Amino acid sequence: MRKEISRRDFLQTSGALVVCLSAGSFMEPLARAQGPFDTHQSHIDPEKLDSWLAVGADGTVTAYTGKCDFGQGMYTVQTQLVAEELCVSLNNVKLIQCDTAVTPDQGTTSGSQSTPTNFNTQNLAQAAATARETLVGMAAGKLGVPADQLMIENGVVSAKGGGHVSYGELIGGKHFDIPVNAAAKRRSPGEWRVLGKSVPSWDAVALMTGTFEFVHNVHVPGMVHGRVVRPPESGATVVRVDEESVRHVRGLIKVVVRNNFVGVVAEKQWQAAQAAKDLKVTWKPGPGLPPQKSFYDAMRKEPSRDVMLVNSKDVDHKLRSAARVLKATYLHPYQAHGSIGSSCAVADVQADRATIWSATQSVYPTQHGIAALTGLPLEGVRVIFVRGAGCYGLNAADTVSYDAALLSQAVRKPVRVQLTRQDEFTSENYGSACVIEQQAGLKASGAIEVWDCETWAASLGGRPGYDKPGNVITGMLAGFEPEAIIPRAATEPAGELSNGSNAVPSYVAGCINGKCAGAGSIRSERVLMHMVKSPFFTGPLRSPLRLQNTFAHECFMDEICAYAKADPVAYRLQHLREPRMIDVVKAAAKAANWDARPSPGPGVARSGIVTGSGIACVAYEGDNGYAALIAEVEVDQASGTVRPMRFVIAHDCGPISNPEGLRNQIEGGILQGTSRALGEEITWDERKVTSIDWQSYKTLPLGIQVPVIESVLINRPEVDATGAGETAITLVAAAIGNAVFDASGVRLREVPFTPDRVQAALSSRLKPA
Amino acid sequence: MMAAISLKVNGQVHTVDVDPETPLLDVLGDELHLRGPKFGCGLAQCGACSVLIQGEVRRSCVMPVGAVKQQEVTTLEGLGTPEKPHAIQTAFIQEGAAQCGFCLSGVMLTAKALLDENPKATDEEMREAMSGILCRCFTHTRMLRAIKRYQKARA
């Protein structure tokens, strides 16, 4: 049973924490009566050390983080960080993640930002360094020995000539009452004992033995069950709800209607499911959907909000004078987060306050959203993160939290809402569909002189943030508007290059007013982005836009290489100038034993199974991680099936916190990217989405022939830490597409590379030019 | 229609008062507060709800609780405990074969049922057995290594 905890509990009951840890029960919350909040009102000042760390009387360290673990290992590495900086053992650190009552507001856990945010010289890392220096200073006073003659072992500070004092004795149970010191020195990577090591994931034992608590497992006293009834087609609105139609459902508590939001609440989950199925709702049809077949063309004709990222203003002229101009258009579909567990949340909304147990990536923004939806004062809403199934971005975790809050408020009981698989597939915010047009002008030497890129991305809603609950479906159904896309022409780029979406290819110089922050050397450059209104909700999906853009850039680079009859590795290196990019490309080529020659390979057979290799590389978000990926594939030219056999990646994320954890992320990213490249695509008819289950939305199951994955980890202890959760996946579609070209001479410009599309491309190859 | 239903789960007999049409998964999660089997799709397409019934792997999301009768149900937490994990759980712990871990009931119980029945299962047979199991974190490499480790350990 879930009980609430407060920050004060960790100072007062750290003895209980030790028992908790030694029993191996990482996840079980402290048993504590559900009382009034004692620490709300954005109350947790990140400038104060006490907001991040507390030391119990027994020396146990409790750390508070606003970056939570969705299965990517953030809990483990943040525990390592705190243990490292404070010189205590891992078992003496208890991490509390993402709870609006007790953790600092660190916004959203997303975008490969957790490591850069908490592992460099601010926030959690800096707080831990401050605490260590402070404790050493206190020990120096107490022992009468200069600080530089003290050593720390597992929370005990001792003098070389004898005498020691523990953290618990120094400050146990008391507040530090000092600010985080920006000048506190972090332990250098050379001294690391637990950070940088392959510490096993904190949750492994609980997960493998089925005892881990997911949000789906949360039970609170008096909890009942809700289901939602979503519009049967996009844009449909409620005309009438016939409550009589579910009178027969035993255990039914209430039919809830708010604007176009419809849900049911019943004593048991099965009863709620029956009521949701049987409830007769008369819907006014929506406006219909644009034909999928011509959607990419239609996107390009929509009014758009434009951003010019870089513009050297000589592009048209250079294209006219180039020795040769190449052009290609790349297409990327909407894709789903497709969490393995349909989303779930529990809400307990009372007259003046609410508690939400949610798998959201954004507890504070969700707190604001729930306050707006329920009309409750912000300080009365507490959102507690409890892990759900892997989300990979904005899945339906936020929207189901809203669902639970609306239903709980209507019945004044705690309500658990479980979305169905169809709800999940039609409720979530898809990764955007994109069209990317590329043009390049070549010099007579074959080198690239000018690169011109124009992209269209479809967008509706997105993360609700602090003030846009309408950005996810439940908020919109309940009457809030999604953020509007107001068409606007681009202005000329100003300031420094911002490549957060990887819209700018790695090979251009990225110069704005003489300052060049791109990874490449091409000086004639133009990148124009158009945001157009999407008929479906969209939002961040692992490597949002970065993946789509990189697919287009890296495949186009490969097309240019092929035209120039150049080796794809050497030609890339010729146009790169960022040393970390050059290093990953070289390291991947070396590890893969890359065969330096132009693509396609010599004497490509026109039938049977052919094999080939392709490379892609990226400076993720411009400067948030570097990687190069080589894919080796088999193409079965009879069936059109593409089978990746081996991947080799070189990966640089600065100092590595946990090498095995990093490998796990890289391998997962590569295979998830493979699934997305080969089969995943949202489909629709003239009225509704038709990819609504695992038969209509294709994912690679465990029973595939799993390719070999070799990861070369480049550790750079001397630089800032970058993210690592999205770099690998960004490269996969491009590397596979380039390998298919190498194998067969066929260029795939539309994801996913389904057997039908591959076959069509292969057969068009057979026609005389 | 509600009925008192007696159910043997992980070696213990429980009596629950539910509609016999209720999916077994709801009873395991909502009534018995077990955490192993999960609601993934409710359509028997992903495997997250898997349990063993008399040693055979079954999808509890589409199985009415009334159909279980006297058969013994084992969930992931019924195999071993955090203190004393089952050999397949140990293999998965040693390989670090999870990310979010939501799919593990399907992965581990399906592999266990296969290898209990066919200890010398070939790679091809393993792929066949796992062809209806989904992991969306795509922890495939580690999971397959863990299954092989278990196969070796139990031989």
Description:
- The complex is a heterodimer of chains A (769) and B (155).
- Chain A is 28% helix and 22% strand.
- Chain A is α+β, with helices and mostly antiparallel strands and 769 residues long.
- In chain A, strands 9-10-7-17-14-15-16 form a seven-stranded mixed sheet, with helices on both faces.
- In chain A, a hairpin with a 2-residue loop joins strand 20 and strand 21 (515-516).
- Chain A is globular.
- Residues 12-42 of chain A have low confidence and may be disordered.
- Chain B is an alpha+beta fold and 155 residues long.
- Chain B has helices at residues 24-31, 76-79, 87-95, 104-117, 123-129, 140-154, and strands at 3-9, 12-18, 50-53, 56-59, 72-74.
- In chain B, helix 3 crosses helix 6.
- At the A-B interface, helix 7, helix 8 and helix 18 of A face helix 1, helix 2, helix 3, helix 4 and helix 5 of B.
Task: Name a few traits of the molecule.
heterodimer; A: 769 residues; alpha+beta; seven-stranded mixed beta sheet; 20 helices; B: 155 residues; five-stranded mixed beta sheet; 6 helices; 37% helix; 16% strand
What is the average per-residue confidence, as pLDDT of chain B, rounded to a whole number? 97
Task: Give the beta-strand count of chain A.
Answer: 26
Strand content of chain B: 15-25%
Largest sheet of chain A: 7 strands, mixed
Binned, the helix content of chain B reads: 25-40%
Shape of chain B: globular
Question: What is the total tally of β strands of chain B?
Answer: 5
Distance between the termini of chain B: 48 Å
Residues in β-strands, percent of chain A = 15-25%
How do the strands line up in the largest sheet of chain A? 9-10-7-17-14-15-16
Q: Number of DSSP helices of chain B? A: 6
User: Which parts of chain B are unreliable, with pLDDT below 50 for 5 consecutive residues or more?
Assistant: none
Helix count of chain A equals 20
Rounded radius of gyration of chain A (Å): 27 Å
For the terminal residues of chain A, how far apart are their CA atoms?
69 Å
Category from helices, strands and their pairing of chain A = alpha+beta
SSE topology string of chain B: EEHEEEHHHHH
Portion in helices of chain A: 25-40%
Structural class of chain B, by secondary structure, is: alpha+beta
